Amino acid sequence: METDFASPKDQVHMVDQVLARYKCDSNTAVRFKLVQCHKDILDNGKEFHPTFSHQFFGDNLLTYMGLKHDGEVNNKPDPVLSVIAEKYPAGCMTNLDEFMAKLPEEAKFRPMGELLHSYKCNDTEYEIYKADVTTPRLKDYHERLQTFLLWFIDASSYIVYQYYAYPDKIRPRISQMLILPPFQKQGHGAQLLLTVDKFYVQDQQVLDITVEDPSYDFMRLRDYVDALRCRDLAVFSPENIRNGFSDRMVEQARKELKINKKEKADIEKLKVLLKPEEFTATATVQSTHERIQYLDQLYQELEEHYKKTIERIAAV
C-alpha cells in the first residue's frame, strides 16, 4: 500500500489556493471617483485606484509553516472606515444621500489664490493658482486635498518649507507634486513644474530650487523640464554644446534658471545626446567591461532614463 504525502511547498500552495478567495489587495479594493454631478456616481469608467494603500492599512503579514500561537484569535473584521477616517482630520462623509445633496454646492467651487498660468489640453482649459496660508478658504481645502498624498505618494508627508541659504538667499524645496491618475501622462506635471520654476526665477532672493527625495518619475520629469528651459539660453547653443560642458554653462543656468550643479550636469548629458546619431554613437561606445565597472544595472537604468527624456524633448 502506497501513501502519497504532499511536500511542505505543495501544502503551502494548496492552503494559498483555499485562502485566495478570501484575500484582496487593498489597492484594488479601494476605488476613487472624481464626482462633479449625479451621473458620475454610476460611471465606473471614472474609477481609479490608489498605489500606496499600505500607508493606511499596513503591510501584509507573512505566516510560516510550523508557527505556533497561544493567544486568542480575533475574528472580528478591521474597522476599515475608522482607519481611513483617522487620516482625514477635516472629516469625511459616509452617507451617499448626504453626499449627493452637497454636489450642487460643490459646483460653485472656484480656485483660491493668484492665477499664474493657464493652458489647454485635450480641448479643456486648465489653470494653475498660487496660494499660501493667508489665502481665504485655503486651509480647509488643503487639509482635504493633502490626504490624497498618502494614497499616491510613498512615504509622503504634509511638510512644505523653504531653506535658508547663507548669507541672504532662500532655497525653495518642492515637497510633493500630486497628479491624480485620470490626469497623468497628459503633460500636466510639466506645466506645473514649469510654472513653479518660472515663479521662483523672478525672485531675486532665490538661490536655486530643490526637491525633497525625488522619485524616479519626478527626476525624469525635471530633466525634461530643465532641458526645455536650457534650450532657450544662448549659452546652450549647438556650437557651445559641441565644445563640451563648461563652468560658464553652470553659472548661466544657475543665474537665469536657478538650476543647481547636479541638475546642470544631467542637462549637459541630455543636450549632447539630443541628436539621434550622437545618442547612438554614445550608447555603443560602452564596452561590457566598462558597464560592469560602473555597475551594469545602474548604468542601464540611467541610460533608459535619458532615452525616455530625450524622446519626449524631441517630440516637442
TrEMBL record:
<dbReference type="GO" id="GO:0005634">
    <property type="term" value="C:nucleus"/>
</dbReference>
<keyword id="KW-0012">Acyltransferase</keyword>
<protein>
    <recommendedName>
        <fullName>Histone acetyltransferase type B catalytic subunit</fullName>
        <ecNumber>2.3.1.48</ecNumber>
    </recommendedName>
</protein>
<dbReference type="InterPro" id="IPR037113">
    <property type="entry name" value="Hat1_N_sf"/>
</dbReference>
<dbReference type="GO" id="GO:0000781">
    <property type="term" value="C:chromosome, telomeric region"/>
</dbReference>
<dbReference type="InterPro" id="IPR019467">
    <property type="entry name" value="Hat1_N"/>
</dbReference>
<keyword id="KW-0539">Nucleus</keyword>
<dbReference type="GO" id="GO:0004402">
    <property type="term" value="F:histone acetyltransferase activity"/>
</dbReference>
<dbReference type="InterPro" id="IPR017380">
    <property type="entry name" value="Hist_AcTrfase_B-typ_cat-su"/>
</dbReference>
<dbReference type="GO" id="GO:0042393">
    <property type="term" value="F:histone binding"/>
</dbReference>
<dbReference type="Pfam" id="PF10394">
    <property type="entry name" value="Hat1_N"/>
</dbReference>
<dbReference type="InterPro" id="IPR013523">
    <property type="entry name" value="Hist_AcTrfase_HAT1_C"/>
</dbReference>
<keyword id="KW-0808">Transferase</keyword>
<dbReference type="InterPro" id="IPR048776">
    <property type="entry name" value="HAT1_C"/>
</dbReference>
<feature type="domain" description="Histone acetyl transferase HAT1 N-terminal">
    <location>
        <begin position="63"/>
        <end position="154"/>
    </location>
</feature>
<feature type="domain" description="Histone acetyltransferase type B catalytic subunit C-terminal">
    <location>
        <begin position="222"/>
        <end position="262"/>
    </location>
</feature>
<dbReference type="InterPro" id="IPR016181">
    <property type="entry name" value="Acyl_CoA_acyltransferase"/>
</dbReference>
<dbReference type="GO" id="GO:0031509">
    <property type="term" value="P:subtelomeric heterochromatin formation"/>
</dbReference>
<feature type="domain" description="Histone acetyl transferase HAT1 N-terminal">
    <location>
        <begin position="22"/>
        <end position="60"/>
    </location>
</feature>
<dbReference type="Pfam" id="PF21183">
    <property type="entry name" value="HAT1_C"/>
</dbReference>
<comment type="similarity">
    <text>Belongs to the HAT1 family.</text>
</comment>
